[in-house]
Each structure stands twice: as structure tokens, then as C-alpha cells.
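User: For my dataset I need records formatted as: sequence, then C-alpha cells, nothing else. Please produce one.
Assistant:
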Amino acid sequence: MTAHEIDYRIYGEEMQYVEIELDPQEGVIAEAGSFMMMDDGIKMETIFGDGSEQNKGFLGSILGAGKRILTGENLFMTAFYNVLSGKRNVSFASPYPGKIIPIDLTEFRGKFICQKDAFLCAAKGVSVGIEFSKKIGRGFFGGEGFIMQKLEGDGMAFVHAGGTMAKKVLQAGETLRVDTGCLVGFTQDVDYDIEFIGGIKNKLFGGEGLFYAKLQGPGTVYIQSLPFSRLAARVWASAPQGGGKDKGEGSILGGLGNILDGDNRF
């Protein structure tokens, strides 16, 4: 194996975190901001690019960092190493309510494709790269654009899905249609494209966007029930304007209650 062979446990229900057990000299890489806690004896190091074996040397590091720029991620990642003789633990937390999905890349022939902000952490040696879409329609209307992330190697990786996660195993020729924002990731054999929603009423009043993600087997697909964009939109829509408290929220009078209470802001 080129990647470090790590053990792990996932804790929690709505707000999960993953605890990685590192043997001496083993390491794990993670996105900046996902770190939660670590035992004494863990050394933290900021690395340029993803620090995988594929990015050895200065030029390799530059290429690895360039890939991360294209996916909208930070130039740097953080690596955590166990520098003592015994086992040590380091933990990484979900960015928002949802599920952490362990991905054993050896089960997927060394490659898994996911949305740009799904990756959480992985064993040292796993490559975090980019996957270009070769289809114009998927690139412009697929929600994730031309570029998605690809995780390559023979180790464990962990991705995050918002809300509840659904795993669908598609047989050859079997098709699944998914909201573009709800797609977390899929295996390399899955044929991914977008499909235009038919019907003028659906386009104008359906409220679900103009396109579906169309996935055709064979392969495995992971879907999330709560994309972060949907969560953020609901929070923004419910936030009172101007930073004040909305006195009419939840009442029968609604906005009229604000006027009766003397709050006449519009």
C-alpha cells in the first residue's frame, strides 16, 4: 500500500466527528478548519498541495496546489503525524449537520469522485485531485461545474454529506435522477450527465431548478438530503432583516403584529 493504513471510529448522530487512530509514524491529511482534537504526541504540519506520493518534489507540490485552486479550496492542507511509540488519536468534525461517509478506495478500484466541498480527511498518501467534466451540458448546468474532486489511492478517505445520506448501488443500465445539489459523489464507472426538466409549468413554477443530475450504472452513488446551499438559503430567508427580532414570526397576525407592537420597519 502507498497510503497509510489507518483505523477509525465515527461518533455522533446529527453532528458527527471521525476519530483516526494512528500507529507510530502514520499520518492523515485534512482540509483546513476540520480539525477537532488530538492526543499528545501528534505533530501537525501545514503542507503545500495534498502531500500525496503523486506530488513529490517542488514541481509536484506546485501542481498539487494548482489543482486545489481550480476546485476552490485552500492552497494548503494540514497533515497530522504520530511521532511517539504508542497509538495516538486525532479527530475531525463535520462542518454542518449530516453524516461522515468512510470511503475505502480499494473497494472502488482506487478512485472516487465527489463534489468540491465534500472531502473531510484521508490517510496520508491519498491524492486529492480534480475531475474535469467532458460534457458541455454537465459543466454549465450540473451544479458542480466542469470540475469535481477525485480521491485516488489505496487508503481510507472521509467525505461529508449534509442531512441524511442515501447510498444507491446501480446495476448496469439502471438510471437515477437526483437534484444537482444533493449529489455527494459516485464511483468512476457511473455515467454522470444532466437532464433538462420538460414542461413549461415545471420550468416556471416547479421550484426545483431546470436540471436533474442523471446517473447511470453500474456503480455506487451517494446522495445527501440537505445540501449546504439549501440550508444557507433557508437560514437567510428566515433571518430578520436589519438584525432585529421578528416579533410577528409564528403568529397569526404575521407582519401586522410588528405594526401593532410599534415596530413599523419595512
